[in-house]
Amino acid sequence: MKITAWGVSGIGEIVPGQQLGDIIFEACSTEPNGPLQDNDVLVVTQKIVSKAEGRLVEIDPTDPLSHKVLVEQEAVRIVRRRGDLIITETKHGFVCANSGIDLSNVERGYAALLPIDSDRSARRIRDIILAKSGVNVGVIISDTFGRPWRKGLTDVAIGVAGIAAVVDLRGTEDALGRMMQVTEVCVADELACAAELVMGKSTGIPVAVIRGAEPEWFRDSSMNEIVRPAQEDLFR
Amino acid sequence: MKITAWGVSGIGEIVPGQQLGDIIFEACSTEPNGPLQDNDVLVVTQKIVSKAEGRLVEIDPTDPLSHKVLVEQEAVRIVRRRGDLIITETKHGFVCANSGIDLSNVERGYAALLPIDSDRSARRIRDIILAKSGVNVGVIISDTFGRPWRKGLTDVAIGVAGIAAVVDLRGTEDALGRMMQVTEVCVADELACAAELVMGKSTGIPVAVIRGAEPEWFRDSSMNEIVRPAQEDLFR
């Protein structure tokens, strides 16, 4: 088994009202970006989804408080706070710094909020590509989150369509023929990580293609597979 | 930029005392596993490292307590406990379930402990391959950890050699020419995730090769780049 991941060039600067599915389809219709094939996974960074969907809010760039008010508006709960760092739980159930709001790769004077429903954003991109070309791809909307205990950020899925979020290996036998204990793998987050390796943070490549994922991972899915309900969680 | 990841076949069952560097070099010396090239990354799962290094402990498979005593021995601190689930901080500073001890893919009646020093394990593999072939690879020892707030497990690095653990993008300009806020990316964990996608959990493929990682990521490194000191951590 082999997977290949590459960044999609030529997406350009995205502005509110643009249809990402059309733009990505166009960019991927020629070499070396594409053409896309059945069971390719498209990983699309949150920033361009937020821009296309008009999730930009004016802030006073000289006033740190203006950013902070936004963070609290987008949160359902403050999980931790230390100095300027605020870890919140968002309306979607994501736990992350600053309710997922950030200012990098956004015009000065604006902040980008998370998409309202990233599963829907992913589905729309998938549906447009299917309608235009008959090709069935999985789509993951990715964002860059920190995590407890470990330094450095990694990319995670915040929206999925047509590709499993979590794959259940419960009941699968391990290589020694014993039932496995370790059971559920978050392939959507792992695919987001693989994509980040080819997108970098500052190179203006907001979309990646991953080819070679297991065919059985391609199915209906949603972020409900990933977001852990508060009552099952030991850390909030 | 393009990366490719594939599983290495033919490693076979590992027993205490075997030299993994020799075995991996051998497996990767022929098509389709190899030959290895400069700046390839080898991702090696913890389980075979623990086996090769004799980190196997006899337990009574009918007595759950015998496993639990081990978990506490390997921990420096219990971080959370609910029912049978114990989240501990290990001697290495990793926070994970059961001190990283698990029983899958291990012979019945034995538990595999984490390697004593996975950076050293990674370095040994790297050094053997360099000595035998003159090829400079990065090596990551990976394990499968859960995380707060998100369901599903993902692979992470628990040892590194010759490849950056965390890449610092501080001061890099974003695509709009502004200084970036998001700064440090844990490429070692992202590489471990990409590798997991091709290794699966039950297929007996304990090693993967990743080709195409950024040349500037190849340098001396250690898990100190990833383990967050307790005093900087908001969640223990």
| Biggest β-sheet strands, sense, barrel of chain A | 5 strands, mixed
Order of H and E elements of chain A: EHEHEHEEEEHEEEEHE
Overall strand count of chain A: 12
Question: What is the CATH third-level topology name of the largest domain in chain A?
Answer: 60s Ribosomal Protein L30, Chain: A
Number of domains of chain A: 2
The two chains with the largest interface, and their residue counts, are: A-B, 75 and 74 residues
Categorize the overall geometry of chain A: globular
CA radius of gyration of chain A:
18 Å
The CATH class of the largest domain in chain A is identified as: Alpha Beta
Specify the helix fraction band of chain A.
10-25%
Multimeric organization: homodimer
Q: Which homologous superfamily in CATH is the superfamily of the largest domain in chain A?
A: CofE-like
Structural class by sheet pairing and helices of chain A: alpha+beta
Low-pLDDT runs of 5+ residues of chain A are none
- CATH architecture classification of the largest domain in chain A: 2-Layer Sandwich
**Mean of pLDDT of chain A:** 92
Provide an overview of this structure:
The structure is a homodimer of 236-residue chains. Chain A has 236 residues and is an alpha+beta fold. Chain A folds into two domains: 163 residues, 60s Ribosomal Protein L30, Chain: A (2-Layer Sandwich), CATH 3.30.1330; 59 residues, CofE-like domain (CofE-like fold). Chain A is 23% helix and 25% strand. Chain A contains five helices and twelve strands. In chain A, helix 1 crosses helix 4. The mean pLDDT of chain A is 92. The interface between A and B is large, with 75 and 74 residues. Strand 1 of chain A pairs antiparallel with strand 1 of chain B.
